[in-house]
């Protein structure tokens, strides 16, 4: 039956709709006026400063500083990219640039080669880790910043560049031909034993999924029946690459991630579109607090479908989507436009930047407000704080002496010296620093500065301060001096006390001289507690099944 609507009621409804539309229209007009007003004030401000300020100003620099200060009010991922930084930004998103293919950095005496990438001009020409850069073409570079030297080494593909370096007492000159450099997303993969394949995924730039696919297919062809996918220290990248990688292990047509924002055009559901490479192979994913963004999408989606066991530490918690938009004069802005939601429905963002405190700090989501979701098998997972591993492994804490030996470049310098005195070493998976090598390293340290403060020394220093405030210092002065003497005596023995730890760090550094980045990664896996735990899971089918089984909660 059709009911008749009375004219006064209908008229009232129309008035309410009109008033609602009028309010929305007025609100939009107010916002547009506020934007136009602010832009006009900003433009007028720069013009008046340029005219009246006592010294000459740089309008472009002033604009950049102003814009960056404004964006700091939002979140760390919304960034202004001026025209001169576009190439660097493109390299971060694509992993490609034109240059010589070497990582450089400052080590006190100047900029040195930290890592020549395998197969590219620097390595092919003979540049080695530890080479001190003296000159690029005709330009002296010892006093230049790392970024300035890096720009000199870059240039159009197929153009020449001459590099002069100091190696020990020798000065060497190399002529290189720049090439298009594509940094690997998978710097290393291989078999850890007869059954276990391992893939290190360090980035999510273009072709990341193709590299993981090729590695997986190769490992399966070599007989691997179980896989460790290492996403530790992976900062993320392109969302489509993350979706393709998840698709290697789960069927076609499955949701991987949703993006939800203020505007309809940024709302999208990403699903798998291909037949997976392997739906059955056992998978363990390694994550830590530096695994972020796309790495969290992969780890979280595989966890939500109970397709992989996650080991390590809680991930970073970056669930924000950035879109790059063009601005005037070839500038760009990378702006946060949405949030990521993985298949269980949870958002992995850990910090609510919209609720920044007055002091500029931001708060994480308290545990009491984290919402519970369920995986495909009914396991309980929580939102609002990154991805929680299925079993946590405490990250290794290094002794102060180890930090000091690394920071002081003593381990780096010894590895370089060792390389030039020893033509070959064993493979990365078998090389170890022998007692003889370690004794030689200790001799190398004689006369070198590597002072440091131990945790115990710091505690004693803090105790002294508190006792002085409480006026108890004189009463316990003798006891404190006795403690200090014992601490200093123990400190003298730290090279022996922490020998196992120092030998491990030294081993990886030495291996890098012979086998570069790939070998350094392979060497780092020896004795890795998270790798060892993963092997334990694979050795017990019951343990794997229990980790992925329905929660009893």
State the distance separating the first and last CA atoms. Answer: 50 Å
Counting DSSP E segments of at least 2 residues, the number of strands comes to 21
Arithmetic mean of pLDDT: 87
What is the CATH architecture annotation of the largest domain? Alpha-Beta Complex
> Superfamily at the CATH H level of the largest domain?
2-enoyl-CoA Hydratase, Chain A, domain 1
**By helix and strand content, what is the structural category?**
alpha+beta
Total domains = 4
CATH topology value of the largest domain: 2-enoyl-CoA Hydratase, Chain A, domain 1
CATH domain class of the largest domain: Alpha Beta
Instruction: Give the strand order, joined by hyphens, for the main sheet.
Output: 10-11-12-15-16-21
Tell me, briefly, the overall form: globular
Number of helices: 17
Which percent range fits the helix content? 40-55%
Return Rg in Å.
Answer: 29 Å
Fraction in beta strands: 15-25%
The major β-sheet equals: 6 strands, mixed
Q: Which blocks of ≥5 consecutive residues have pLDDT under 50?
A: 1-7
